[in-house]
Amino acid sequence: MSTATSEPALAVTDLTVAFGRGAARSVAVDGVSFSVPEGGSFGLVGESGSGKSTVLRAIAGLVPAEAGRISVMGRTLGPTRDMVFYSTVQMVFQDPYASLHPRHTVDRTLAEPARLHRKPDIERRIEEALEQVGLGHGFRFRYPHQLSGGQRQRVAIARALMLEPKILLLDEPTSALDVSVQAEVLNLLDDLRRERGLTYLLVSHDLAVVAHMCSTVAVMRGGRVLETLSAETMRDATPAHRYTQDLLTASQGYREDS
Amino acid sequence: MSEALLRVEDLWVRFAKPTGGVVEAVRGISFEVGRERIGIVGESGSGKSMTGRSILRLVRPPGQVTAKQMAFLGTDLMAASERRMRQIRGNRISMVMQDPKFSLNPVMTVGRQIAEAYRLHTGAPSGEAARKTLEMLEAVQIRDPERVAKLYPHEVSGGMGQRIMIAMMLAPDPELLIADEPTSALDVTVQLSVLRIMDRLVRDRGMGLIFISHDLNLVATFCDRILIMYAGRIVETCRADALMEAQHPYTRGLLSALPRLEDGQRRLSALQRDPAWREAPSVDGYL
Amino acid sequence: MPVDPVPVDPVPVDPVPVDARAEAEAKGWRAWLTAEAPQSRLQARAGQAWIGWLAFSANPLAMIGAAIIVALVLMAALAPVLATHDPLAQDLQARLTPPGEGGYLLGSDELGRDIWSRIVHGASITLFIVALVAATAPLIGLLVGTVAGYLGGWADVVLMRVTDVFLAFPRLVLALAFVAALGAGIENAILAITLTAWPPYARIARAETITIRNADYIAAIRLQGAGPLRIITGHIWPQCMSSIIIRVTLDMAGVILTAAGLGFLGLGAQPPTPEWGAMISAGRKFILDHWWVATMPGLAIFIVSLGFNLLGDGLRDVLDPKAQGR
Question: What is the ipTM of this complex?
Fold first, then answer.
C-alpha cells in the first residue's frame, strides 16, 4: 500500500465483468482500462448497453468483477469492499426518485452513513451537508415525496458527502432532471469538486454534459473503450473514431439528411 | 400554412387534490395546429403532456378538462360522445407515447397488434390488414418485416419497439399525430433515425404533428413552430429556427442553462424564476 | 461557501426560526401537522400520519370497518357493563327463549344462558385470538421472507421449502393436528393458528424483498458499509410493512373463522367459555327449531370479519407506497 501523490486516485486495468454462465454468459465490460488523477474528472460516455454504468458498479463492488485490477488511492481492491473504501468512494445514482428510501426522512438518510462509521457530531454534520448542497434546515425533516427531483438529487449528493469521500462515482446524475435543474446540479458538483478537491468519475449518455464536466472522456461501445479523448478534441469535433463522430453529430440535434 | 386541423381555445385541466384544493395543470391555453410539425416544450409539470392527452380526452378523473372550443376538422371534441371519440382516437388522431414497453401488449405478436389496430379502425379484411402491416413495418425501415411481425414486444429493442408503435399508429392514416416524448427513452443515434422516419411519414401524408418534448435542441431542429409552456400556460411561441432569438426570459434562461459542446466548461447560468411568469396571460399559439 | 441561491420549489418556503414549533402551534395544530418544512422527527412523522388519516377517513367503507373494530374493542372492555346477565349463569326454566322475550335480548341457549351476554363476553376471547395471531404470525413471516429474499442462494432455498411444506397443508387440518398433539384449549388453538398462518406472509415479504433489494436506495446504503442485518431491518422491513399490514387485516376474518372452526370442532376454547365458534357448535343441534342459538354468534363473527375486511381495503388505499408521494 502506497500513498505517493503521483499515484492516480482511481486506476482500472483490464476490467472485465460478465453476467451469467455457459451459453447465457454475456460480457458487459470487456477489458476496460483508464485512470483518473487525484482532483481530476473523468467521463465515460456511451449508449445504453455500452457497459458504462457496469464499470461504475464494479468499482463500487455492487457487481463482481471477473478479471482486472481496480486500485483506489494506490491501494488495490480485493473482491470485497471494506469500511475504508466506503469512506473514500461514494456514489450518486441516476434516478433521484429511486435512490432515496421513500419512508426515511432526509434526516435519517443523512444520519445513517455517519452512524455506520461512528462519526462524532452527527447533528452538526447533517446541518453542514444540507447547507453545502444548497438546502437549508427546512428540508431536514421532509420525506422524499415532499421534495422535487432536483432537491432529491441534492439530498443524494449530501448523503454521498457525509463520509467526506475523496472520490465520487456519478451515474448519470442529471439525466432524470429538467434542463434548468440540471444546470444547478452540475454547478453544485463543479463547486464541490473545486472546494474539496474531489475526484469524479462521471457516466453519462449526454456528450455535452460530459464535455462540460470532464477534462478527459472515454467513449464506450459494446463493453469496450473505443477511444479516450480530451474535452478539447471533443469540442473541436476531431475524434479519431467514426462512432464518436456520429455521437457528436447526433448530439447537435435533428438533421434531415444522412 | 394552410387551414387549421385542430383549434383549441382556452383549455384548462384541473385536478382535485385528496387533501383539498385544486391543482391546475393547464391554465387556459389556446393554439391551432395545421399540417405542420408543432413542438410543445416545457419542463416537467409545465402541463405539456396534459395538453396532448386532453386533445384525445384521455385525462382520467379526478382530472377535469374544460375548453371554450376544441375543434378537429369541424368535429367538436369537447361535445363528442365517448363512442365518437373512440372512432377518432387512433383513426384520425393518433398518439405515440414515451415508452413502447408500456404501450404494446406483451402477449401478442407485434404484427398481430398492428393488423388488429388497423382492422379496428378501417374494418378492412384480414388479408388486407396483413399486407398493410408489412407495408407499415417497411415504411418505418424495419429490414425484415415478415420476421419482425412474428416477434413479441419483449423480443425487440427500444428503438425498434418505438418504430413499431409508430407503424401501428400511422397504419390507419390519421390526420394528426400526437407524439409525447417519443424518443426520450432511446439512445441519441437511434433517436434520430426514429425521428427521421416519423418526419418522412408525416410529410408524405400531409399530416399534422404535435411533438411534445423537454429537449429544446431537438424541438428547435425538428419542428416548424414551437409553443413554450411554463406553469400550465404558453409563455412564448416562435418559429423553430428562430428559437435562439427567443425573447421571453424563461426561454432564454432554459437556453443558457443547457450545457453546449462548443462552450467549454464555463459555468452554467442557473434559471432564476420570476413569479410574474406564472401570472402573465397565456400567449395564443394560433397559426 | 458559495452555493447557488437555488432550491427550486413550487411552494416557497419561509425561512423558519429554530423554535418554530411553538409559533406554528399558535397557528393551530393543523398547520403544524401540514407544515411544508417540519422542524423535528416527531413533526415529520405526525404529519405523515395525519395525511394518512385524511386519506383513510375519506373512505366511508373503511371508516365503517374501523368503527366495527372499535366497537368490538369497547365491547370487550365494557363487557361487565354491557352484559345483562352472567354469561355462565344457567336457568333451565328459561332455556331456548326466543330473542326479545323474558329479558333475553338475543334469546337464551339450551342451558338458559343469555346469548347477548355470552357474545359480549366472547368478544374479549375473539380479540385475544386476533391480537396474538396478528402480533406473531406476520413477524415470523416477515423475518423468514425478508431473510430468504435478501440473502438468496441456499438460505432462500431452505427457508422457502420449509414455507412450502407449511403451505402444502390445508390450514384447518394442520391446526387440528397441532391441537391434537398439544391438547385442546384456547392457547394451543392460537399457537396452532399462528404456526399455520405465517407462510403467506413469508411469501409476500420475499416477493417484495426481491424487488426492493435491487433498488438504488439499497445499493446506496450498501455503499455506506451497512451489513445485511441493518439493511433488512432498517430498510427492507419498512417497505414490506404496508403490504403485510394490509394482508394481516384481510386475514383476520380467516383467523376468526379458523378459531371458530376449532371451537366448533371442540378443539378450541372449552365449555363453558363463551367462545363464538363453540357457541355455534352448541347451537347447531337446535338450528331448525331454535334458529337464534346458532345464528346470533354467527352474525357476530360475520360482522367482525366484515369489519376487518373493510378496514383492510381502506388501509390498502392509505398504505400502498405506489399510491403515495409523486
Answer: 0.87
